[in-house]
Each structure stands twice: as C-alpha cells, then as structure tokens.
TrEMBL record:
<dbReference type="Pfam" id="PF00440">
    <property type="entry name" value="TetR_N"/>
</dbReference>
<protein>
    <submittedName>
        <fullName>TetR/AcrR family transcriptional regulator</fullName>
    </submittedName>
</protein>
<keyword id="KW-0805">Transcription regulation</keyword>
<keyword id="KW-0238">DNA-binding</keyword>
<feature type="domain" description="HTH tetR-type">
    <location>
        <begin position="7"/>
        <end position="67"/>
    </location>
</feature>
<keyword id="KW-0804">Transcription</keyword>
<dbReference type="InterPro" id="IPR036271">
    <property type="entry name" value="Tet_transcr_reg_TetR-rel_C_sf"/>
</dbReference>
<dbReference type="InterPro" id="IPR009057">
    <property type="entry name" value="Homeodomain-like_sf"/>
</dbReference>
<feature type="DNA-binding region" description="H-T-H motif">
    <location>
        <begin position="30"/>
        <end position="49"/>
    </location>
</feature>
<dbReference type="GO" id="GO:0003677">
    <property type="term" value="F:DNA binding"/>
</dbReference>
<dbReference type="InterPro" id="IPR001647">
    <property type="entry name" value="HTH_TetR"/>
</dbReference>
Length: 195
C-alpha cells in the first residue's frame, strides 16, 4: 500500500479497501478491518462512505481512472503499442512479485459478482469495458504499424489478451509463484509479435 502518512483520510480509506479487496475479496473484509488498518473509528469511515459498497466502488473507480487516463494519453500523442502492453503487464508483474497489489481489485470483485450490490457490479463491468477498449486501441494501432499480427478482430484479441493477463494473475496466486505470471504473459506477447 501507499504510505498512509501522505494521504488524506478518504484516500487512506480507499487505499485500504483496495488492498483488502485484492487480498481477501469483497466479502472477506469489513469496516472494522479498514478502521484497524487506517487507525480511525468506524464512524469516520461511515462519514466518507455510508455503505461498504460505496467504499468498494471508490476503489474500483480509482482503478478505472487510471485506465481512462491511459486512453486519453493514447488519443493525444504517438505511442509505442508494444511498450504500452509491456508497461501494463510489467506493472502487474511488479505488483504480484512484491505483493503491493497481488490481484486486480476489479478482478477480485468480478469473482464475487453474483453477491455484489448491483451498482458496484456495474462499476466492475465498466472497468472491464474500459480495459478492453484500451487494449483494443493498443492492438489496433500495433496491427496498423505492423508490430502486432492479429489472428482475429482487434476486439476479440483484446478480450483474449485481457483474459490471459487475469488468468496469469490467478495462476500465480494458485501456485504461490509470482514468476508464473511473467511466463504466461510473455508467451501471449510473443504470439502477438509472430508473423
């Protein structure tokens, strides 16, 4: 987690919830867990987030904001499609290896989708739509530049790549071996580069 001392209370609560969701899932944490981690009273959490779903939704929105910003940057300037995918997978490789973010918050919540409040579930779905759109944009640009060799529609390739990344997270977690993630995503990147 980010150092709490440099954050305001609301941000500290969201950061704590994000980490707890990534490590335990939505149904595996409570306001008591967040209060203990952030060193505040539960009433303080309710002041910022009346319901647990509100707090979880803020954690998802924090992740989505990063994707939306990346999409905006892609639209503004020239970019290297391969480097974009390497940055994306490299981010997760580091987070899994050092346990700072051992699983994507939206990925964990997607596993619990049937038990989530509908507005939170909608936020999780929107996260995946945003990520898929970003990947489709990157893959399309890479194919147009002759960097990537797509075997199907860019939208389907984006969904496949996204599924591979999330599957690699799950495999690394299941085996307790962070290096599994890198091996799987590197193979997916090599497939995109093959003529």
């Amino acid at each position: 987690m980010v150092g709490f001392s440099s954050m305001n209370t609301r941000d500290r609560l969201v950061d704590s919830a994000r980490y707890l969701i990534q490590t335990r899932g939505y149904n595996g944490f409570s306001y008591a867990d967040v209060a203990e981690q952030v060193q505040v009273r539960k009433a303080s959490i309710h002041h910022h987030f009346p319901a647990k779903a509100d707090l979880a939704r803020a954690a998802v929105e924090q992740s989505r904001a990063g994707i939306v910003e990346q999409i905006r940057l892609l639209e503004e300037a020239a970019f290297d499609p391969l480097r974009q995918l390497q940055f994306y997978t490299g981010y997760w490789e580091k987070c899994i290896a050092d346990a700072s973010a051992p699983f994507c918050v939206a990925g964990m919540l997607a596993c619990e989708l049937p038990s989530l409040p509908e507005d939170l579930a909608d936020g999780v779905r929107a996260h995946f739509r945003d990520l898929s759109h970003w990947l489709e944009t990157v893959l399309t640009a890479g194919a147009q530049a002759g960097v990537f060799h797509l075997k199907g529609a860019a939208s389907a390739e984006a969904e496949s790549f996204m599924s591979t990344v999330y599957g690699a997270m799950l495999t690394a977690r299941a085996y307790g071996e962070p290096a599994k993630f890198s091996g799987i995503v590197q193979a997916a990147l090599r497939r995109l580069l093959q003529a």
